[in-house]
Design goal:
The structure is a homodimer of 305-residue chains. By secondary structure, the first copy, chain A, is of the alpha/beta class. In chain A, strands 5-4-1-8-9-10-11-12-13 form a nine-stranded mixed beta sheet, sandwiched between helices. A four-stranded mixed beta sheet of chain A has the order 3-2-6-7. In chain A, helix 6 packs across helix 7 and helix 9 crosses helix 10. The longest helix of chain A has 18 residues.
Amino acid sequence: MSLVVVGSVAYDGVETPHGRVERMLGGACTYIALAASYFTHVKIVAVVGDDFDQADLDLLASRGIDLAGLERVPGKTFYWAGVYSEDMNDRTTLRTELNVFADFQPKLPDHYKSQPYLMLGNIQPSLQRGVREQMNGLRLAGGDTMNYWISDYREELLETLKGWDFLLINDSEARELSGERVLRRAAHAILDMGPHTLVIKRGEYGAILFRKDGYFSVPGYLLDRVFDPTGAGDSFAGGFVGYLAEQGIDPAGGKVDVSHLRAAVVYGSVMGSFCCERFGVDRFRTLTRAEIDGRFQEFRAFTRF
Amino acid sequence: MSLVVVGSVAYDGVETPHGRVERMLGGACTYIALAASYFTHVKIVAVVGDDFDQADLDLLASRGIDLAGLERVPGKTFYWAGVYSEDMNDRTTLRTELNVFADFQPKLPDHYKSQPYLMLGNIQPSLQRGVREQMNGLRLAGGDTMNYWISDYREELLETLKGWDFLLINDSEARELSGERVLRRAAHAILDMGPHTLVIKRGEYGAILFRKDGYFSVPGYLLDRVFDPTGAGDSFAGGFVGYLAEQGIDPAGGKVDVSHLRAAVVYGSVMGSFCCERFGVDRFRTLTRAEIDGRFQEFRAFTRF
């Protein structure tokens, strides 16, 4: 029983107040897969160029990630470069070179298609839908999106969302998607679009899980130093869906256990917080499940009253 | 055993996306006192002009608030007018007329001086210190401040803080006071200035309680509609200190019960959320303790995992 993750595998150039890295492994699929790999077996679908480093393949393989769906084609791997503001709450994109990612057509190896869990990273909604339709034994499917698809591919996105169990987005995206300023109203408008579960990520302020029957809110973990927030949202997604896969959650097979969903939001927060502690994916080179569970308990300790 | 509250009693003109009120009861002391009055007996120290309405005195008296320290002098009551942005996260001050408040010298009636609890609203630090020094049986004293005092009266403020058990400020004030961007570091720098307890208010995102041995974080309550956020921070303060007074908390007399402090932060959040539901102090005209305790239980329900 595996989790299939679809999205970008990329190289990033990142500058934060703590330093600068010219070229490091990145991409939504990478962060989601690495974070989820602490909870469940992961299979990825992505494309890279012939410049992709063996060391980066080795890192993914070392986490037990199935790379059969990682297509390698002539050309250069997707490259993104950006610089963060002093307080890390804003970032400016310096370069976006889609390269081989421009023609990405997700191809699922046959042994992926019967897997029960699917997480669709932020790519064009029609591609997300195409993947969803190739899967034939899903228990839980969902994904992420972004402002660009919400504004310029709205109908395509709405059609895609109908097939999802969960959607993970940030608060400004939730407001744009729903047309509602008040978060609670925005959430209920989105829950009418298809997903029964919505997670709104609020960066340093935490995250909120919405379902039609109520909500769960968890504040952010207070880091002593945010080294690099790149990938934190995708790491959150990986922790969230990875934990649900580990629990074998099966909404269609009966009622959803809300306590699992709540714990999944906390595990997502835990993985996002770890991600920020080092540049890029570096924290996942040393992170252990014991550290993850330790921080989960810290969340309990600082939220309980 | 009463709580003494010192600060402004004012008239406010407020415009939000939901409407506009030309002149309504406001001021930090007013909101703190009203919110705290649901938990403990309150005595206020403030000054108003001869234009102050009997109906507003009646409202305060109806909540059992001792008005012996409410000085009435010739002239006009402090007037403030402001307009909120569409998302309510910013406000622009249109008018500030200090009037009789410009010469405010807090005078404590004799029967105030032996009370155990003191909450100093946002006024000049030297005045806050003067009040603190007139009290002779304090168990717990603290207050609020603002950017103006932090930047232009820094030494006076630092001298004042040395005598406080707790400080309640918002996140931008905490950063300015400490010179630290990262909230956790900012908090520890402030805890070295005197107060053993620091509450950082984050508006819609909730609040964090810091003490040297750890922190407690509570997310914000999700309102369906924020009518008017004026006074929410002061209502938070009133709920926080009012609840501690109700519990008879006595840090000097032994160890502090951290569970009381955590619950106080939640009661503060509850009172701030109610405040936003109507214009000005209007919600406090009908609010009951049962509603307050009900919302406290709601906080438990949406934060537990």
